Amino acid sequence: MKIQSIYIILLLSFISITSLFAQEKKKIEIVYAGRLNVEEEQYPGARVLTRDESQQVHIMQGSINMWSDKAIYYSGENFIEAYGNVKLIEGDTIHMTSKYIEYSGITQLAFASGGVILKDPNSTISSDTLYYDRVKQQAFYKNGGTVVKDTSGTITSKIGRYYMEQKKYQFVDDVVLVNKDATINSNYFDFYSDTGYAYLYGPSTIVTTESKTYTEKGFYDTKNRSGYTVKKSEIHYNNRIIEGDSIYFDDNKKFASATNNIKVTDTINHSIAKGHYAEVFKAQDSLFITKRALIATKQENDSIYMHADKIMMTGKPENRIVRAYYNAKIFKSDISGKADSIHSNQKTGLTQLINLQRFSSVDKFSKKRRPILWNVENQMTGDSIHLISNPKTEKLDSLLVFNNAFVISKDTISKDGYNQIFGIRLTGLFNDENKLRKVNIDKNAESIFYARNENQELIGIDKARSGSISILFADGDIEEYTRFNQVDGNLYPESKYPKNEKLLKGFDWREDERPLSVEDLFKDDEPLQLPIIKGLEDYIPQDAFFDEELLERVKLAGQGYIVNRAAQNIPQDETTIFNLLKSSSDLSNSVWEKNDVRLKINSEISPNGKKLATTITGLASTNNNGSVVQIIEKKVGNFIFSVWLKGTGSKKIIFQEQGGDFTVYNFSNINLTNEWKKYSLIAEKVNDGGNLRCIINEIKENETISVWNPMVSELTKK
After folding, report:
1. Is the torsion defined by CA of 23, 27, 33, 36 positive or negative?
2. Which residues pair with 30 in a beta bridge?
């Protein structure tokens, strides 16, 4: 049936104005249609609306307006199907276009398909199919979609959900964010469009021009290009890989810091730094590490380890300088040392052991703790010590000891005999096995040697002073020595040697300080208590979009009801059906009347796996009919009672009058199973003077049932 456009305009305007007064505010209104047809055979009970040359079909419901080329309107079901260039606008915030939309005015759920684009002031969603829930103000896609958010970039994923009031997106499966600064890949990705904050869960990577970050739980600020990670995390900075329990990074400053169980790998210099707090400045090519700081550098087929309270590495790989200070130590299989600080230049091969000038205010006669070095059986000390290695071959080349040079080695046979050399300056040369081969002591040289023949028999104890001494070592033992400008000297039989002259002035044997393993480097450290990292909350999977609340709305709509939100003073943006019950999650509360039952709270995992349900056990009674009851202060209206139950036996849920003749408005017999199931009951209460009450009944002696989330809501007819 075809009607002229001007007549339709007048007719529909009249219908729209009348509808405002005669129908529910929830009713879909037809604002404009070029043509109106009734095609009962193809669309029973529906009106077919078609555009004309001037404009599209226009319908509305409350703050929502929809335009399309064609629409099928089922007024009885308050439902519409819209085809062709469909546009849906809600207020001044939501703007959605697609090829097709179906919309229920009762559930206020829209389904769109065919090139769907949904825009709000914060972002744009594109997908082939999209669900939009007006009540919860949520949009959802499950077959792939794209979100564009100005400077934050473009996000694609298989599943996406938009919580409009929170301005929050929750993406699942094959999530990729791309913007001018970064590319992020993740399995689970929460994103807040107003702040640009992104929360990553599961295996995730963040790639920028400055770094590549991997984590299984982390945060990234897409606007400020900074973030932190707290699970199985690592950052790649050019030639460095940073790992730690918690890592913070700022790509603007080209900076990263890490806390607890840190490992920094230098892929060029083949070194590994460990500790429990570290800072890396990429632009300066520097690393600072503390809290049991340790650096291991591979040399030939061995590794040299350096430990100190704090260690700093600066410079490009080919010109890197390492500074270890406060109780610094080094260890290698053939050499070890200790000093206040150790400086190593990897370009020149020079390593310096330096001590600070300190004086004890407690003990004026305490020994000055000089830098110390051990090689094979030799202990060397002085005011400062320089080790020189060949940067290319990484072999030890020479040794310099400045001022108060002192070399001590224990005699291999006698209990308390020590070979000793003292002078102003020491120069040493190493052989190809990194063992000290030759030592020259210059200026004011003093020495004590235990002279032995080829059978290791003691010939005597040699003590002398000279201008300088040159010594050759073999496996730590003195092979031969030569004195220059000797001042005096004697070779004493052991029995004739003065006991009080067995040690040169300044003798300080420190074998107990010598590290014999990597673990020994830490033996003087104070106990370390690592800070507790607060981190991020664990990932909370999004609830199914078609959850119980939404399905409940659809079910009620099919029975001719909607939740009476206005009558219950429920805000229109409230995201759950209003519950008239008090303490619904705590059946032990006094608002619940308990008859011949015993409750056990928090004893059962609830259907959503997040909360604990209550178990109810029947007790012995005269009528063998235990129950839990709550009174609701409502005297008239339509109501729904729903509850999750599991257990055995038959039970009842009841709507009944409180007082008077205890009229039963409706009841349902239930046969429970060992699986959770939601049961519901709808009843109309007349104004008979009494309040309403809901009951879970017929809980027999020794029978146990589990209860979760009882709910009563008020309904209104469509």
Report:
1. negative
2. 59
Residue 287 and residue 297 in contact, taking contact as beta carbons nearer than 8 Å: no
**Using CA atoms, how far apart are residues 295 and 307, in angstroms rounded to an integer?**
7
Contact 489, 483 (CB under 8 A): yes
Evaluate whether 90 touches 73 at the Cβ level (below 8 Å).
no
For the stretch 337-373, pLDDT in tens is: 999 999 988 888 899 999 866 544 555 544 567 899 9
Encode 541-570 in three state secondary structure: CCCCCCCHHHHHHHHHHHCCEEECCCCCCC
Q: Mind giving me the DSSP string for 578-611?
A: ---SSSTT-TTSTTSEEESEEEEEEEEE-TTSSS
Q: How far apart are CA 245 and CA 262, in angstroms?
A: 7
Query: How many residues appear in the chain?
Result: 718
Instruction: Calculate the dihedral angle through the C-alpha atoms of 181, 183, 187, 188, rounding to the nearest 10 degrees.
Output: 10
Domains, the chain, in order of start with CATH, read 1-119 (2.60.450.10), 371-507 (2.60.450), 552-717 (2.60.120.260)
Contact criterion met (CB below 8 Å) for 158 and 142: yes
* pTM greater than 0.85: no
Q: Is 34:77 a contact under the CB 8 Å cutoff?
A: no
The tens digit of pLDDT for each residue in 591-622 reads 999 999 999 887 788 887 777 889 999 998 87
